[in-house]
Amino acid sequence: MSVYILALETSCDETACSVIKDGKEVLSNIVSSQINIHSQFGGVIPEVASRIHVENISLVIQEALEKAEVTMDEVAGIAVTVGPGLIGSLHVGVMAAKTIAWLYDKPLIPIHHIVGHIYANKIVDDIQFPLLSLVVSGGHSELVFMKDDWSFKVLGTTQDDAVGEAYDKVARLLHLPYPGGPQIDRLAKQGKPHYTLKTPKTEGAYDFSFSGLKSSVLQLMERLKKQKEEIVEADIAYSFQEVALNMLVDKTMLAVEQYKPKHVVLAGGVAANSRLRSLITEKMESYPNVKLTIPPLSCCTDNAAMIGVSGYMAYQKGLFADLSIGANPWIDIESS
C-alpha cells in the first residue's frame, strides 16, 4: 500500500507544500516565492515574510493536494520544517501542520531544514552510506557526515556568515540586485584573475569563514577608489567567488580523504551555483570510486518536496511529535 506524505516548508520566504508518494515520487511541489517583494529591500524582511506566509499557506496546501489528486484521508502523515529558519516564518508552517494533524488525526513529523536539503538528493538518485554532504545556502554552510541513514555528524560549519549571505553582502557592494548569488555567478564568468583576495583562516580544519572575505572585498574597493584606479566589478566577482568556492571544495576534499565516504552530495541554494558545480565535479574526478550527486536546480532552493522525502524516512522510523511542538530556529541537526 502506498504511503503519501503531505509536507510544508516555510523556513524563510518560500511558502511551499508537496505531496510525496513512497518517499521518492513527487506528485506535487507547489512553491509560492516572495523574491519579487523582498528584492525591493535587498534582503528578506522577516515580518513581511511571515505575513505573506499566512496569506498563502492555505492556498498552496489546497493546490498541492489537487495537483497530486490525493485526499487528506489518503495522507499518512504531515511533515513540516520546524527549524532552523526565521521564527515567524517557521511558526506559520508549524501551526498549519499541527492544525491539519489534529483535524484529520494524522501523525505530525518534525523535520530539520538541513536534513531536508540533504535528502532532496533522494529525489534524483539512490543514496549510499557513508555519505558526505556539503550544505550551502543563504543561512547555512556545513559539512555533514552520515555514517548510516538518519545519522548526522557536523564536521564543520561557518564561524560567521553563511556563504550565501556573503554572496548577498558582496553583491550589495557591487550594486547588484538581490539575491546576490546568481548575480555574482553570472558576473564572475566575465571576470579575470586580476585581484588577489586571501582565504580566511579558521579554527577547525573543516570550518568556514566568509565575513573576512567580504571585508577584504570592501577594503579592496576602497583602496582602488582612493588610488583613483578603475574598479573592474567582474574581476572582483571572479576573485571573490574563486576564494569562497575553493574554500568550500577544498575542505570537502579534505573530509573525503579522512572519512572515506561512498557518496558525496551537494545541498542547499548555493548548490545551484554553476562554478561550484563544475569545481566539485572536477575535484571529484580524483576519487573515481566515490559517487557524486549534484541535485537539479529545482531541488536546490527551499521547497516542500525535500521535506516530504525526509518526512517519509522519519515516518518509517516512527519519529513523530505531539501537538505541543513549536518552531525552533536553533534546532540541532545532530539531535534530529
Walk me through the structure.
- There is one protein chain.
- Strands 3-2-1-4-5 form a five-stranded mixed beta sheet, with helices on both faces. Strands 8-7-6-9-10 form a five-stranded mixed beta sheet.
- The chain has helices at 35-38, 46-68, 87-104, 113-119, 163-173, 180-188, 211-226, 233-259, 274-284, 297-300, 305-317, and strands spanning 4-9, 14-21, 25-33, 75-83, 108-112, 131-136, 141-146, 153-157, 263-267, 291-293.
- It folds into two domains: 4-119 and 300-335, Nucleotidyltransferase, domain 5 (2-Layer Sandwich), CATH 3.30.420.40; 126-294, 2-Layer Sandwich (Nucleotidyltransferase, domain 5), CATH 3.30.420.
- The protein contains eleven helices and ten strands.
Short description:
Helix content is about 45%, strand content about 20%.
Number of strands: 10
CATH class descriptor name of the largest domain: Alpha Beta
* Topology-level CATH name of the largest domain: Nucleotidyltransferase, domain 5
Termini separation comes to: 27 Å
What would you call the structural class? alpha/beta
Widest sheet: strand order? 3-2-1-4-5
Can you tell me the residue ranges where pLDDT is under 50 for at least 5 consecutive residues? none
Question: What is the CATH architecture assignment of the largest domain?
Answer: 2-Layer Sandwich
Largest sheet: 5 strands, mixed
Q: How many structural domains?
A: 2
Percent of residues in beta strands: 15-25%
Question: What percent of residues adopt helix (DSSP H or I)?
Answer: 40-55%
Mean pLDDT: 96
Number of helices: 11
Q: Compute the CA-based radius of gyration.
A: 20 Å
> Which of globular, elongated, flat, extended, rod-shaped describes the shape?
globular
CATH-level-4 superfamily name of the largest domain: ATPase, nucleotide binding domain
Helix-strand sequence:
EEEHHEHEHEEEHHHHEHEHH
